[in-house]
Amino acid sequence: MSTASKVLAELIDALRCLPGVGAKSAQRMAFHLLERDRDGGRRLAAALTAAMERIGHCRQCRTFSEEPVCALCAGAARDRHVLCVVESPSDLAAIEQATGYRGLYFVLLGRLSPLDGLGPDELGMDLLRRRLAEGEVQELIVATNPTVEGEATAHYLAQLARDAGVRATRLAHGVPLGGELEFIDRSTLAHAFGGRQALD
Amino acid sequence: MSTASKVLAELIDALRCLPGVGAKSAQRMAFHLLERDRDGGRRLAAALTAAMERIGHCRQCRTFSEEPVCALCAGAARDRHVLCVVESPSDLAAIEQATGYRGLYFVLLGRLSPLDGLGPDELGMDLLRRRLAEGEVQELIVATNPTVEGEATAHYLAQLARDAGVRATRLAHGVPLGGELEFIDRSTLAHAFGGRQALD
Ligand SMILES: [Zn+2]
Ligand SMILES: [Zn+2]
């Protein structure tokens, strides 16, 4: 479609910012919306605009939120004595969908990775330290990914918990080494979550 | 993510209007844009808005165009004596990308399908009849899909060409039965296009 429509060419190109979408799928998506679902296309445009402009991070747990404090942190329904630390909002979503966890979360938005300029400051470790010092949290569940950097981050978190006198636990075996939480099937993740063990 | 953010939930839901995108991919796309490519998300929103509002159909060939007459029809570079009839803009794109075709197109935006309310009127057959009556077109290449409805449409087009005294040709064997042009590999399509045969 080098020729027929500049607006269409721009749409096809812009769709390629979506992960897993190559030239061929982008073209198919653009044609589908134009031929059969213009309302869907308009709704997607509005949803994208709203999300890109309005979604920031919860100042308590750092997950995505359009409010200063997210619904999870603000709500009264969750157990405030258990705090689960994850690397990303995707991991939070995976645990919410797979397990019956009723505690709160803390989202690092990364993992310790000095080469990428990600140290304790970038991951909000001070915020977490202050949270643990408040004394409300009795168990810190460390749910970083089982990668080299995730393990280093887990060690840091275990030390943080130890300093604050808070018990730290880690997801049970069952999470495959080198795997990403986000892509693990629900039952494996639920099993690993249920069988989490004390960090030594 | 039933809980954390309504704006995010709406984005994930809206992404599912894209073909081939389920709940899991929609969530991955939303997180990717929010975490790593907000500029890409904004650009996609703008491209969608522009495309949904501004792209209509060329009044000569009926393909997608933001101008009354598309760049293909308006340009001087193409051979105006050959007209290739396709079912959809996707098929036009597939032929443009796979073959060295230098003629013009006519896009039916469908195929004869009485049960779906698609008859000659809906497919612009009158517009095509008037085009053939002008005398400029010397060959009508029928490139409908090799499905039952596509074949019925091809027969109708062959009759239209016969009535106007225009030679009609059909893509050569090589297009698999039941297949869709859009999904055929380039070399097969190029071969079938080059070896098109007279419709009897
Ligand atoms: Zn929060
Ligand atoms: Zn045109």
From TrEMBL, chains A, B:
GO biological process: DNA recombination; DNA repair
Domain Toprim: from-to ranges: 81-176
One MF term in the entry's GO annotations: DNA binding
Matching Gene3D superfamilies: 3.40.1360.10, 6.10.250.240, RecR Domain 1
Keywords per UniProt: DNA damage, DNA recombination, DNA repair, Metal-binding, Zinc, Zinc-finger
Coiled coil: none
NCBIfam families: recR
Family: Belongs to the RecR family.
PANTHER family noted in UniProt: RECOMBINATION PROTEIN RECR
Protein name: Recombination protein RecR
Organism lineage: Bacteria, Pseudomonadati, Pseudomonadota, Gammaproteobacteria, Lysobacterales
Gene name of this polypeptide: recR
